[in-house]
Amino acid sequence: MRPLIADIRSTPLLWLLVFVPVVLAAEHMGAGSPTTRFLLSVLAIVPLAALLSRATESVAVKTGDAVGGLLNATLGNLTELVIALAALGAGQYMLVKASIAGAIVTNALFVPGMSFLLGGLRHHVQEFNRSTARIQAALLFLATIALLVPSVVHKVDAVPTTGASTFTSDLSLGLSCLLIVTYALGMLFTLRTHREFFGSAAHHGEDETPWPVTLAATMLVVVTVVVALVSEVFVASVQEAADSLGLTPAFVGFIVVALVGGAAEMASAFSGARKDRLDLSVGIALGAAAQIALFVAPVLVLLSYAIGPTPMDLSFWPGAVVMMMVAVLTISQVASSGKSAWFVGVLVLMVYLVFAMTLYLLPPMGTAAMP
Amino acid sequence: MRPLIADIRSTPLLWLLVFVPVVLAAEHMGAGSPTTRFLLSVLAIVPLAALLSRATESVAVKTGDAVGGLLNATLGNLTELVIALAALGAGQYMLVKASIAGAIVTNALFVPGMSFLLGGLRHHVQEFNRSTARIQAALLFLATIALLVPSVVHKVDAVPTTGASTFTSDLSLGLSCLLIVTYALGMLFTLRTHREFFGSAAHHGEDETPWPVTLAATMLVVVTVVVALVSEVFVASVQEAADSLGLTPAFVGFIVVALVGGAAEMASAFSGARKDRLDLSVGIALGAAAQIALFVAPVLVLLSYAIGPTPMDLSFWPGAVVMMMVAVLTISQVASSGKSAWFVGVLVLMVYLVFAMTLYLLPPMGTAAMP
Amino acid sequence: MRPLIADIRSTPLLWLLVFVPVVLAAEHMGAGSPTTRFLLSVLAIVPLAALLSRATESVAVKTGDAVGGLLNATLGNLTELVIALAALGAGQYMLVKASIAGAIVTNALFVPGMSFLLGGLRHHVQEFNRSTARIQAALLFLATIALLVPSVVHKVDAVPTTGASTFTSDLSLGLSCLLIVTYALGMLFTLRTHREFFGSAAHHGEDETPWPVTLAATMLVVVTVVVALVSEVFVASVQEAADSLGLTPAFVGFIVVALVGGAAEMASAFSGARKDRLDLSVGIALGAAAQIALFVAPVLVLLSYAIGPTPMDLSFWPGAVVMMMVAVLTISQVASSGKSAWFVGVLVLMVYLVFAMTLYLLPPMGTAAMP
């Protein structure tokens, strides 16, 4: 336990762990308004996500390159997955879809944008490995395309109402299998046959000494359970909290869940950018976004057959489709130049801000039309 | 005739020629179900397409570079053109449009994707000439944009019903002229003023000894006539066959016609990829796709005024528009990196599979709404 | 005054200044049909735009690099701004939006396309600085995305009618502030922190001897006032003239206003291309397009609160959205290759021609549906 306590002492972010017992107690006693419980759960998830990411990396370091990379890649978005599972169990499919879309957009715009800005404020011009970034952007681009096909075809074609529901759910099921197969082949590619191209991004916690493996493995299990418990509070309170804070559910799912769930990776990406290691930042961001599209989203579809009230499909509401497409096109465009300066960050962040502003202003009734 | 017989002996693909008399006899005697005749016609077209491609190349080699290149470029998609003409004469505009869209998507995704995969399984990383590929991808991108404008503007703008039909057909007519002029200028560019950039792709049959010119010219005429006859069987049986096989007409036009009509070019592209000559594969694929958009599609519009029951316009159904746009954007993105490995092929093929799955699952009534 | 008279003598374009008194007199006396006055105002604006551009550059040269660059950048699209202001005051929001969209499309397609063609007819292959062009294309891409978000979200989402109008105008207002802040930061970037990347484009009038500063400053004020007067005639007559010439208002705003307002910049861009200085041409075109999106459009929204009958929002009609997106994607694609030949120009111009043809053929009633 000593390394854990040392970590907590030296990392102010982890002091937020104090909110974990608070939120669980509040939920148990029914104390506080839903808004309070919502805010507490947000504050509690951030340090848990950081611990989870630390534990995953420590286990990964100990198990050798191939298995470690696999663990890192599969558990990298564990927090998002656990939150989404809680929402899935509660049948809140709109929240699940908004958080999938939001995680892709956040990782494709906010994380690189902020990295370019923070890095650019310290360094005049930053270069990053253009060809690696391009391969990663291409993966993300193709993954996003595949994810969006059902939404687009469903929307634009005059599918008659009788056959429509089976069509969309059949397509989503088939597509999820295809995406997971692709993800598995992608693992083979990045961790085995062509790992030399993806080397640097795999070790993004290299500055920290890893935890002993038993501590790491225990923490992995324990923290996942705690995240699950806190996520239940989060999901149970989000609707009422959003109403009372004047936020639309789309805004909460898209912006808040994505920022909260990805806090730990963001910290790594930003610190990489400030150290002029933009390869690392871009790798983390694009990798996380691709993983959401290729792995988290299809797994949620498949699990919805087991734990959801009805099967969930992959049709997103049109605004989310546009935002995902634009985000992915934007980062492909930017990544293909291989260079960055502070203003590139400003521009990418501006696109993100425009999306956030749109979702914030969108009348709440409008989002009721989401499938 | 000897070179022809030698070719047939050494090329198992050409043994399928046995189905040519079978399908024509079956049609003449009214034997077999429409489904049988449909399958026989598919099997018969594949070797005919290969012969046509062989004959075109042999004539091209003999007539010198400029005329040869022109012949190669103009007759390269002769099979697709003849099939489409048969469908045009029968007034099956939906099938014509689906086969145009499918030929673009197949050449932009399936052919390069399979080439990257087959090449990547033999070679660790393959490089191809980035700047040539980029010029070709840009040509294809712009050609596709031009082709899609009527569909998009027609769909999105609130065109009143009274003026709409004239608007779309006027626009399609004007656009077809513009596309053909552009195609002619493109010939001038690739074959005359800047031919050094496009050199390698022009001689993709260089491993085979060309046929004598009289044989080649005769075959060109004879095989075209036979393809036309078989295409009539194909078009006459496709509707009933699709029904009984549970395929939508969109699937047949988009996937089956495109794969059947392009079989010969695919064989060249794949063999190029395995020999680590990706330039060749990418050149064949992008060239064929651009030719469909710039030449075959507008020629069909113009010919519809002569041989169709009513003029055909260039408005595609929305799903096809999205698929063409995505296909072209995908290949532009991938081609701009100039590098490939097996997983790039997997990803590109995945996008193609997603489209195929979508069209396969699309309820048949949905496609009845196609214009 | 002598340098002015010398300029007028040596520049045939400026002889068109003779139409300035003619059109003002015609308007004053109510002489001529609206169509005549419309055509006269078009002929009068072209040389005025050239004078305005000359005056701005002369002032800019005298005030040193930073202020000069700022002036050049801010006043570069002064003609378009003045015309749009006249339309704004008259409440012709459709014309304002069409001219914004048209200016972006013209600068992103027509100007580079014609530059590539004119340059390519003299030089076999032209190279331009790929990384500068890519940064500029990325700026334009992101600016356009931001500009288009309200239109897209507004269109695709099922925004209920009650909240819709406030939503769109709130979003447009917030977005306009965001765009102007971004523009200001962009000035800081291009003129101060990273000016070495944008150097060449700033001095595009370097062949001409600048006017004395008092003449230049006086001309700046005087010509702006005259442009404003002529613009009023233009705006007052455009509707009736378009009707009697059989042009749609969309065509006039999109094509005519953009070509007229940008005549001076186009002359510089084309002459640069012929001198094999494509960096200059691409820089002028992409810079002007980005400026319209980041500065002119939001300023018009903000000013509409002061001088328009009702606030103007940023929702464009769907066809314009598609054309802007396609234009920006096309030029990004082309600019990323860093090379050009005459046929690239043909292709880019073809896309522009397709748009022009579409707008020309669009039934006039269709455009009445524009918001």
Largest interface: A-B, 39 and 34 residues
Q: Tell me the Rg of chain A in angstroms.
A: 20 Å
Name the strands of the widest sheet of chain A in spatial order. Answer: 1-2
What multimeric state do the chains show?
A: homotrimer
Mean pLDDT of chain A: 82
- Percent of residues in helices of chain A comes to over 70%
Order of helices and strands of chain A: HHHHHHEHHHHHHHHEHH
> In this structure, how is the largest beta sheet of chain A organized?
2 strands, antiparallel
Count of extended strands of chain A: 2
Low-confidence stretches of chain A: 365-371
How far apart, in Å, are the first and last alpha carbons of chain A?
Answer: 46 Å
Describe the structure.
Three copies of one chain form a homotrimer. The termini of chain A are far apart. Chain A is mainly α and 371 residues long. A two-stranded antiparallel ribbon of chain A has the order 1-2. The longest helix of chain A is centred in the middle third of the chain and has 33 residues, at 161-193. The radius of gyration of chain A is 20 Å and the shape is globular. Chain A contains 16 helices and two strands. In chain A, helix 2 crosses helix 10 and helix 5 (78-89) packs across helix 10 (213-245). The A-B interface holds A 131, 134-135, 137-139, 141-143, 145-146, 149-150, 152-153, 156-160, 162-164, 166-167, 170-171, 174-175, 178, 182, 185-186, 188-189, 193-194, 332, 336 and B 124-125, 317-319, 321-322, 326, 330, 333-334, 336-337, 339, 341-344, 346-348, 350-351, 353-355, 357-358, 361-363, 365-366, 369.
